[in-house]
Structures are given as structure tokens and as C-alpha cells.
Design a protein that fits this description.
By secondary structure, this protein is mainly beta. Helix content is 9%, strand content 48%. It has one domain: Methylamine Dehydrogenase, Chain H (7 Propeller). The strands form 8 sheets. It has a 4-stranded antiparallel beta sheet with strand order 1-30-29-26, with no helix packed on it. It has a 4-stranded antiparallel beta sheet with strand order 2-3-4-5.
Amino acid sequence: MAQKSLQIGTLTTPMYCLNLAGSRHLIMAGGGGVAKTGVRNEIQTWLLSYNTDISQAPSSGPQNSAILRDAGCVDTGPHSTMNMDVVPMSTGHPDHEGRFLIATSHDHFCDIYETDGYEVIEKEDEPDVLGLTQRHVARFETVFDVNKKNDKYQKGVKFAPVGGSYRLVTAGSDGFVRTWSVDDIIRLQDRVRPLRQWSVAEGEVADLEVSGDGRLIFTITGKDVKIWDMEGQLLKDVRTPEGYTPRCVRFTNRDRNPERDNIFFAVAYNPTVQRGKQVTRLFRWVFSQSRSEIGLVSSTDVLAERISKISVQKGGKWIAVGLMEGSVVVYRTDDLKAVKTMKNSHRTFITDLQVLPERTEDFPQLAAALNMRWIPGPHSEAEVGVVSIGGDQTVQLHSVPYDNMPSIAFAVVLSFILMLICPLIVALLLKL
């Protein structure tokens, strides 16, 4: 039986990518592609907020009044965005300035967009919205040759922090990984050349990830998961369980002991050949570069559905898995214990999902006013929240409630301050 989560939005355009910009703005991208179907290709910005009309709020609890509000849109022309990454403008820029870099995959090109800060978007029949203004700043070719299938697509894109700036890592259908200077991209535009490029496989790169410190690159090609450094040196092959094919790889966290160089990451596996109710699997691995060792930390069976996407919360505390039959499962990262399963929540496959952050980092004034070191994230009335988008063109919010019920009241108050009061205060400041 389907276990529906709260639907917080309906999309008029199919969306394939979902990222966070700060703590409460969601960036979605997709569209109808080059076919002249009348379906627009767009990058959409949404504000995760609350319904302020108490008379219309559902009676099942305060968490059910969460809604999405339209906060901006960019037309991407004939190109539908198939993968995307979003980061603050530079590693030294705090999120609260509202300045972000967005990298998108458009056929064999990469397009870069910037947000110039928060702006107040006036609405006629509803409260004003705190939006993000986006503008296009660069386009350049990242895939130079067709593969054996005559395809030529950018298959993955990730930002890697380097000092106070970023490198961009791209992966293509030609089996190459390429690294680029973001500063050079902005300066040279379509004349930019890669800093490094190397072939990782004869086939296309199915998935791409970069460690949080920007030092390691993870790739999936065929049945192989490989770890590379930024210079293109192969550091380690990750063993794939027999009968399975890796689907997604995501960095989770570094070792809490600063004297160790352990890097933890998660890999999701689908059965190579689906036989009956054969389950998919999720593994958590640890890699030490200094010792050139890799080990399995924990593993778990997921569901008898093929995995489409996984997401790791910033800080690495929670992992969410989206599946092809519309289910979402949330795991505690340390031991891969499933804390909640939403079976068939979407009517069809999950196209992307994001675990909402535990902390709010884009409104330091509130933390200072409350004399707090940090304030909880935008869905803090729950222990963790996950936003998912699906082929049914709905946006859903999945909540894992606290075990300790008395703590919820305090969390609800903080969540209302964060998602309702903070944007209003920022909007007020912008109007001054």
C-alpha cells in the first residue's frame, strides 16, 4: 500500500535535477528537451516556506503546512538540464549573501549561472517572496568526441573547493573526466581549456562525485567504482558485490579524528539482472589515501525496487534513497539503519531528492540575536526532512519525526522563525 508523504508542490515542467541554494531555496532544472513539444526548458527557484493562512492549514500537524513558493525562473532555451551542481559563489562567501554558482549539463556543453543575491519578488494576491536573481555567465564545450553509440553528452558536473575558489569537474559520454578552473571559465568563456583530462573507461561515465575537501573524485563506469586524485591518478578500485551494478556514489564525511585521513562514502547498487524480488543494496565504505586502503564499514538491503538517486545531508548524518517505483527510504549514515520508508510515495520514479540541512547557515543575524552558536535547519520540527521530485511532476516533503516528543514544540517554534520570519526580515532589509 502506498505511503504518501506531504505534497508541497506541483510542477508544470518535468524536472530532473534538485539542489539546495542555502538552507531554504530549492533549485530545480529540467524540461522537454529539443523536441518542439511546447514544454519549456527551465531552471526554477523555489522557497520552502509555511502556509501563513491558519484557516487553510491542515489539522494533522504544523509540519503539514509546509509549502513551496515560486522564487524565480530562467529559460535554458533548447536545452533540458540533466544534471547540475550548486555552491556558494566562492568558498569564502557565506550562504547568507545569496550569491551562488550553478553549473548545468546541456548536451555536450556546460552552462554556468550566477545568482546576484536575494531580491524581494512582489506578489499581487499573496505575501512577497524572497527570491534569487539568476544570470547566465558562461558556456563552454566539455565533451569533444562522440562515443560508440554516437552520443555526445556531459554526464556529470561537480564543483571542487580549492583555496578560496573552485575547480569544476565534468564527466562525459566519451569516458573522460576533465577538470577546469572556474576563474578561467568566467574569464575565457568558450576559449577555456581543461586543466587536466583523462580517460576513466571506454564507455560513458554513469555517475560522478567529489569529496567535500575537493581532493578526490569518484566515478562509476559500467560495473566499476574508482577513486582518483585531482591530477587524474587512479588511487583505488572499489569492489562491486557479485551480481550487482553500481548506480550512485556519494561522499558522506571525513573522519572525526583530524589526525586520520579517512574518507567515508556511500555506493548504491542495483541487481545487474533483476530476478523476481531481488533487493537493491547500499554500502558505506572508508578510504585512507595515506595507507591506500579501502574497507567496508556497513551495508544494508534497500527494497525490491531499482535505485534512481541517493542524497547525503550536509555533514553526513543522513542518507536518502529514491527508487524507480516512487519510494523513498531514509537511513542513518553511521550504521545504515532505515529510520523511515515511504513506499510508492510518488506515482512513478524519483528523478532527484535532497536531504534538508541540519543547520541554518544563511541567517547568522538570528543566531546572534538568540545568542546561539547555530540554529536548526528549515524543517527542524522533524529529526530530518527530505524533498523529492518525481516523474509524476510532484514535489514531496518526507519527515522523520523525533523520538522524544517534548522536543518537537521547541523545534516547531524555531522552524517557524527560520522559514517564515527570516525571509520577511531579509525582505525588509532589502527594501531599506
